[in-house]
Automatic annotation (TrEMBL), chains A, B:
Name this polypeptide is given: Uncharacterized protein
Claim: Signal is one of the keywords in the record: yes
Swiss-Prot/TrEMBL keywords: Signal
Matching Pfam families: DctP
Length: 365, 365
């Protein structure tokens, strides 16, 4: 089945087991150094696993082979999905994942992934690179023993696939929806039944009527997964994850032990992936959306403003609770909130106003 | 005067003179190779010159000094502003500029910079990296002897500073506005007087009433330039340049002569800058806009839909004429148009719908 290709685990909760103890140690020599990179993705998983592989290959290639990165897909080197601890403890040298997987350490890490009604991909990159975000992230990293980097972004996700229409907030009452993370908590707060389910079981649960709705990613993945074949409505926008960052962190001792040019190579490869992953998601989402609209008559629907407004209030609460859960989270939350507040004024008159104007009925091409 | 810092030339037309003939030849040795990078920017010009310097420094650093890039600001190594020819002819090894400066060679190059009502930064990156754009750009590059790369983006620019209100299309009749490139051609077509003026003369022309309006960049540069002090209205959106790409091209023979890891280093450094330049423009635009709104009570105004619609029709004509001006332009234009048409469907339900929902009056933070 084609959709199997698009089945990934549900983050930390999906796989259990202790870290393997038979890890090959990094090789040191005058001419070559090897780093192990553990990822949250199955081998060659589109957009995510392929980005991890490209990142590893790029670093290896740029260094002329003096810094070789060996990429280990999910479960292959470290059995536990807690790759953060594996890297912090030096069991592996780096990970490629999404920060909200490690929110058990501090909720602050959610802000370096994506939070409901938070920042989009380009805003996230602006905040982290030039708005004080990286400094705060480094501060958290120091506590745990890792050096973190932005390493990609999925862009705005979709609201999800629904078998019933959402016309008022009442339509969410009791709705059985699979939406992991903060998004699920938000929907629960407005009355839905948020159901936790590994991605491998989503398809059957929808088909057998155990689920009314499910979130996944966006047109690219959703189309391959086949969700358009078994649900009625495709809702937007994806308020729950407006631009989810991929991240890659390196054990802090390992980072400190690298030469200046190896550090520069790693840092640059990360920034390049941050650009390219978003570009790939956008290009392939565009293509898949057009295929779905042309070949499958997918019924696109926008969440009504009243519903978005109620969800927005709930999102504000959920994010605020996370942002006030410990001193580090509070610090990050304050920086994030200030940037978001100011950024809204700019997006309103830049991209957003531009896109609104571009939709006017003038003739072009 | 502080604003002097923000004076740059007006592209190809601003400086005359032949390419210098006393160029140091690239050094070849077993351990070190030097490349000359000529840029369109004064030394340390914010966002643009600093990106060129960072790019050069990164390549040098990542290579451990085996590939040293020497950055030459505007006018310092090559006297002619036609850096494209200088690199194509091997007078310099690479340039850092904007493709529309070289539209004299083929109008197709405009599509790799920005065209009125065209693609935004993230759409541009998606088209070029994963939508067939790079292949077409490489095809053009081959004809002239250069290998081109995306190397940054300014994001959506502003519509400009005006001393009179634009409420209907009639208000543009006879308006004396400084807007270079396609934007100026578009405004001329709807009745404005498009005036060509080097950036060093804009300020005085506005103050003495010789100009009614001028385009510049966005809040970051505009605030430093001081345009808010001498004009009445700040109009958005910047239909004329919705996401202007910086680019960096390398002489094709030089590119071919580089080792695999040096090529990988250059390619990765370019992609990293594409992410970072946009992030810096966004972060600094956000900050400057908030300063202007708080301290200077700048009067922000949106072009009315009727005006945007009329300008959109004129933009459609201007871009179509350029896109049909030669066979290569036609090929690029067709690819661009298809991507734009499909991308509009995605932006409408992703970033645009998300940002519209984020503006609802819910409580957040």
């Amino acid at each position: 089945m084609k959709r199997r290709k698009f089945v990934i685990g549900a983050g930390v909760s999906a796989v259990a087991g202790a870290a393997s103890t038979t890890i090959p140690k990094p090789a040191f020599s005058a001419n070559q150094r090897e780093l192990s990179m553990v990822t949250s993705w199955p081998k060659n998983f589109p957009g995510l696993g392929t980005s991890a592989s490209r990142l590893g290959a790029r670093i290896t290639k740029m260094s002329g082979g003096t810094l070789k990165v060996n990429v280990y897909p999910r479960g292959s080197l470290v059995k536990s999905p807690d790759l953060f601890s594996a890297v912090a403890d030096g069991v592996a040298d780096m990970y490629h994942a999404i920060e909200h997987y490690w929110e058990g350490n501090t909720k602050a890490l959610n802000f370096f992934a994506s939070v409901p009604f938070g920042l989009t991909a380009t805003e996230q990159s602006a905040w982290i690179n030039f708005g004080g975000g990286q400094e705060l992230w480094d501060e958290i990293g120091k506590v745990f023993g890792v050096k973190p980097f932005l390493a990609g972004n999925t862009g705005v996700q979709m609201g999800g696939w629904f078998n019933k229409q959402i016309n008022t907030i009442d339509d969410l009452q009791g709705l059985r929806i699979r939406m992991p993370g903060f998004g699920g908590t938000v929907l629960k707060r407005v009355g839905a039944q948020s159901i936790t389910l590994p991605s491998s079981q989503i398809f059957d649960a929808i088909e057998t009527g155990k689920l009314d709705a499910t979130e996944w990613f966006g047109p690219w993945f959703d189309y391959e997964f086949g969700l358009h074949k078994i649900t009625k409505y495709y809702y937007y926008p994806g308020f729950q994850e407006p631009g989810t960052s991929l991240s890659s962190s390196i054990n802090l001792d390992v980072w400190g032990s690298l030469g200046r040019h190896h550090r520069e190579i790693i840092e640059t490869a990360m920034a390049a992936e941050n650009d390219l992953v978003l570009a790939e998601f956008n290009a392939r989402n565009i293509k898949a959306l057009n295929l779905m609209l042309t070949n499958n008559q997918v019924n696109l629907r926008r969440f009504p403003d009243d519903v978005m407004n109620a969800i927005g209030n709930a999102a504000g609460e959920v994010v605020s609770e996370a942002g006030n859960s410990d001193p580090m989270s509070r610090k990050v939350y304050r920086s994030f909130l200030k940037f978001r507040r100011q950024s809204i004024k700019w997006s309103k008159i830049s991209d957003q106003a531009y896109w609104n104007a571009r939709l006017l009925p003038f003739s072009y091409g």
